[in-house]
Amino acid sequence: MRKADKWKDYRLIDASDGEKLESWGGVRLVRPDPQVIWKTPKGQGWKNADAVYHRSQRGGGEWEYKKKLPESWTVSYRELSFNIRPTGFKHTGLFPEQAVNWDLMDGLIKNAGRPINVLNMFAYTGGATLACAAAGASVCHVDASKGMVQWARENAAKSGLSDKPVRWIVDDCEKFVEREIRRGKKYDAVIMDPPSYGRGPSGEVWKLEDSIYELVRLTCGVLSDNPLFFLLNSYTTGLSPSVMSYILGIILTPRFGGTVSADEIGLPVEASGLVLPAGSTAVWTKSNNLMG
After folding, report:
1. Any alpha helices (H) in 10-52, and if so which ranges?
2. What is the pTM for the complete model shown?
3. What span, in angstroms and rounded, lies between the C-alpha atoms of 44 and 47?
4. How far apart, in whole angstroms, are the C-alpha atoms of residue 40 and residue 14?
5. Residues 56-72: pLDDT tens digits?
6. Is the distance from CB of 230 to CB of 190 less than 8 angstroms?
7. How far apart, in whole angstroms, are the C-alpha atoms of residue 263 and residue 104?
8. How many other β-carbons are positioned within 10 Å of the β-carbon of residue 12?
9. Using alpha carbons only, what angle is made at residue 241 by residues 238 and 247, rounded to the nearest 5 degrees?
10. Is the dihedral of CA 129, 134, 135, 140 positive or negative?
């Protein structure tokens, strides 16, 4: 497992009984996590949390604030800065485990020795977009949520990256890719971070396991003749690293050569010294041993 263990502003303090206790820039939050099926003793730190998210039987949930918190605050990872806001769906606007992938992409782009044009799909609040832009790439950031794209732009401004070559696109990712193919637009790298489940603007159901193969196959239509990487994330336990590796291998390797690596990614838990799984990543590149 690859660990996001270089954070200074984020800490995963403990995890027990379906919940995790985190520190986001000193603000302590308790949030649900379905991976946490063990029940270890909860110490005093849990009682000192600033806010706790409670799930509702009807879906969603709400925050219980133990103290008044700012509407948003900033955490940083290396040169990148992010606005953190507790949302009604338990999220904070950032997935800290993705820092391992930001570091990976940073190295690939900086070592490419040529200009790199990146397509970031389901780009959320822009962690990967900012990492690639800071490394010197041009980025096309695509997300169907106008609010998330605006949040990403705020993060770019916080990080001093507003003047970097980033296209901010509010659109359905699949439809955008179809249009880019018709336009003849090409990219040297693709980041695909799709949700496990969702509904489209017309009510159509998106389920990752049912849709991901065709989406990867379609998106290969925008790759340049000499692509640098294709990175695929998954947060669902129904899509293992091996399955994602197989998908990238059968679609990309026959055409471009290269290799595929895949692994779980996770966050170190201070209380136990163990690592909490937080999803999986598969990446195709022309190089070897990049996921070590």
Report:
1. 44-47
2. 0.93
3. 5
4. 9
5. 877 789 999 999 999 99
6. yes
7. 13
8. 24
9. 90
10. positive
